[in-house]
Amino acid sequence: MNRRDFLKQTSALTIGGILFPSALFTACRKENFFEDVTYDGKVIIIGAGAAGLYAAYILKSKGIDFQILEASSTYGGRLGKLTGFANFPIDTGAQWLHGENSVLGDLIKSSKTKITRDDSETKFWFNNKLIDALPQNTNIFEGEELPDISYEAYALQNGLGNEYKYIIENIAGDQGAAASHLSVYGNNKDEENWSAGDDDFKFEETFFDLIDKEIASQVKDQILINTIITKIDYSQSEIKLTDSNNNTFNANKVIITVPISILKSGDIQFIPALPIEKTTAFSKIGMDAGMKVFLKFSNKFFDQNIIGGSVCAAYADDRIGKAQNDNILLAFIMGNQAEYLTSLGSDVAITAALLQELDLMYNGQATASFIASHVENWTTNPFVKGAYSYSTVGMGDARKTASQALSEKLYFAGEAMNTNGHHQTVHGAVETGYREVMNILTDIKK
Amino acid sequence: MKLIVLSFILLINLGFASAQEFQIDASYTYLYSKQWDKAIQTYNVSRPWLTEKQPLLIHGFNGSLSYIFNSVEAVNHGINLSYTFVRSSAASDNIENNLYLHFLTVGYLLHYQRNEKLRGIYTDLIVSAKLSGLYRTINGEPFVYSETYSNAFGIGGDIRLKLGYYIPLKNTMYLSPFISSACTPYLYSPNSEAVINQTKGLTSNPWTALLTNQIGLTFHLK
Fold first, then answer.
1. Were A104 and a residue from A219, A371, A382, A427 both cysteine, which residue would form a disulfide, CB within 3.0 to 4.6 Å?
2. Rg for chain B, CA atoms, rounded
3. Does the CB of B58 have a partner CB in chain A at under 8 Å?
4. Per-position b or e across A97-121, b if 16+ CB within 10 A of its CB
5. ipTM value of the model?
6. Does B179 contact chain A (CB < 8 Å)?
7. Taking the CB of residue B90, how many other CB atoms lie within 10 A of it?
8. How many residue pairs bridge chain A and chain B with CB atoms within 8 Å of each other?
9. What are the tens digits of pLDDT across the range B78-97?
10. Could you give the C-alpha distances from A152 to A83, A324, B46, in angstroms and in order?
């Protein structure tokens, strides 16, 4: 190698071996998206349900000042716990963990919370008989190129006639909807995005206990209960919130986690008014009536699941996954059936209607062994007004529009604001809680 | 296994039999992916109870085989097969989380060397198709994000520049330290967020861009 070649190669090696990788490694410098954000402002969270509590938990972990304003007299939102009715605690709200591959699945593993896969068996009330399997396949609501029509209409198109009416009501009821309202296309799209796993789980204690012990306990001291926000003025740099007693609260950013029914009904006045696209999007997201009735019996005469009743399309043995064994049957009532039972006007009348149906199914054994009932009507709860959100016919991208933040001041969370197929679930609500905190952190960092 | 051994022997014989060149690389790999970094950081921020945060997918190793059809010209061409493995592991209370990332690239290689004596600097430019598989276990169990899927597969294209320096060993054998950098402008992997952060579409796009830097050694057989 002559001197010239030596110099050439040494130069090339210097450039290639030092400058080239240095430049590349500099280009690959890891960006810290959320860790190095500091914020002196205050965040107010409206609603102490799963989304609000989790948003607060993340804010606390980031050292950001926050307060939760809750309209009702307790926290938990559509999660609740009933004790003393049976010899095991009862979930009056959400009770199934739908799939364990989620942030809550991780929390359950981390906290060693006891859950049991719900493998309970199903009987169908069909043509006034309890049977093990239906004559026709009802699994028609998944697949390619499904039409944007209701479950009810699509079932009829596919030859599932009137005798399947309450079977279809049950399928739609799982989504918290009446079969005449739920979109085949929309719900199928939601299912395609599902990534939490396909098994359902029940808690030995309650779902409420998980949220209470692991999340609410971290932020309880910052919850102000019985605070019904009626007005949000975000016209100035500081947001002013007013409650039903004319108390005011100031914040720099607000996370709104109230149910979609509250946003749709206009219970909260926004100044300036929300954009028309936003309110239109709210109106397109469905939320039907929903209630749970717990029936206590002296004998266990019922099956683990009974599907297809005309009064209640889904009954479930509530003892599944519990350590104790009082005979509690859950009537899980959604959509038109919940509206009808609500119209009866009293818990006694609701219970009587359910017992009458169960007597028909089990030859009078229901009334004979009936001890007590507990009615949890989420429809008449003024701060919930229904069950949970679902995809209506013609809904399109309404959830995305509804969930977008406004002016870097108002952020929208809660199960209805979950845009990735996990709405209707507690883990879906939790996801929106941390999503909006991250959106806030991102906005702060700008 | 027999097939792999036979293929290896065949390639070595081909190397001895003509002016062709056979290369085996082993290297440390540094990975940069903004989308996946964001998804992992989201995972960490969204789970304040984790006692050990999930490390980003950064460090891994690479093994690569190249076959250059003719090594006597200044510019030659050949084929390249490359495998990269990157792992991220965190053990918090009662929850041990592992992410395993595999890349496989198959590409066309342009090889430039100073002269036929195989001394000094050489450069490889490799254009490849890239496949990825992102896999996760929680407490030793595979994470299954849908009815059947536990792997988030990806597909994209990759361009890699490699710079090495020949050191003769004996006869037809050479060793070369090298550095290389690969850019993957687009890797379509729609389920990667489902694997990393157990959700979809929350913070990440269904695709990511990647930069991969490597430093290692190549064994050459001419």
1. A427
2. 20
3. yes
4. bbbbbbbbbbbbbbeebebeebeee
5. 0.86
6. yes
7. 18
8. 127
9. 999 999 999 999 999 999 99
10. 38, 39, 39
